[in-house]
Amino acid sequence: MARLVTTQLLLLLAWVIAWGAQPTASRARTELLDVCMDAKHHKEKPSPEDKLHEQCSPWKKKACCSTNTSQEAHKDISYLYRFNWDHCGKMEPACKRHFIQDTCLYECSPNLGPWIQQVDQSWRKERVLDVPLCKEDCQRWWEDCRTSHTCKSNWHKGWNWTSGVNRCPAGATCRTFESYFPTPAALCEGLWSHSYKVSNYSSGSGRCIQMWFDPDQGNPNEEVARFYASARTSGAVPCGVGALPLSLILVLPLWLLG
Q1: What is the pLDDT of residues 2-20, one digit of tens each?
Q2: How do residues 92-127 score in pLDDT, each as one tens digit?
Q3: pLDDT digits (tens, 9 = 90+) for 144-177
Q4: What transmembrane ranges does the database entry give (predicted)?
Q5: What is the pTM (predicted TM-score) of this model?
Q6: Sign of the C-alpha dihedral, residues 104, 107, 109, 115?
């Protein structure tokens, strides 16, 4: 009897693993390295862009953005998204440089594949979710922006777009960033609906994505992407296990008892 139960449990485990390996609509893409998102301004494939503008230039050897996109990323209200950083008065330059760098990373990096997810949105088919941002990058972003002003804690949605650019919604109050984002994690994780997740790792660890890096020393995010891609494809970061249909969950105990 014990041998029969053991055999059944092994078969059950094999079944669950096989089910978890099946593709699902919400699963991240299978191509994880040197890829571009299927989004509004991204190129189909990364390629060299020798004239990327200023803060976007670290990605010039292999970029998902065009030169024009990199130039627009530095404008206060650009054609990219018609987003006004100064919606609550003039944003401090030290703060704005982090938002420009965030835009450059999003638009230009070919190293975000392990975190790309499908979405059903009119302006893009893919987004990133929980990119492990190095803790120093998030800390500096928060420190440089804490005295600038905003009126919302989630900038992905809820704006008044009737004028063609984002304005604070009715009833929203302009307060310091620190009021809306009391911690670095609140800023980096909440700002863009969890596009980032603050990592416990530091820059140079090979385990977190760096928003800032010296291109003369190479792109450290390539190693990070390889590490997480390898972990995912080897099963160290399993996807889908546990996402069994209700009918299967209900029938398994009866099968074991039988």
Answers
A1: 454 444 544 544 444 443 4
A2: 999 999 999 999 998 999 999 899 888 776 667 788
A3: 999 999 999 999 889 999 998 899 999 999 999 9
A4: 235-257
A5: 0.76
A6: positive
Token look-up 């009126």 returns 151
How many residues are given for the chain?
258
CB neighbours of residue 120 within 10 Å: 7
Which residue matches tokens 């120093």?
Answer: 136
Report the percentage of the chain scoring pLDDT > 90: 49
| Type of residue numbered 165 | V
| Cα distances (angstroms) measured from residue 78 to each of 73, 75, 160, 209, 210 | 7, 5, 17, 26, 24
Tokens of 148: 């600038």
What gap in Å lies between CA 22 and CA 28, rounded to an integer? Answer: 12
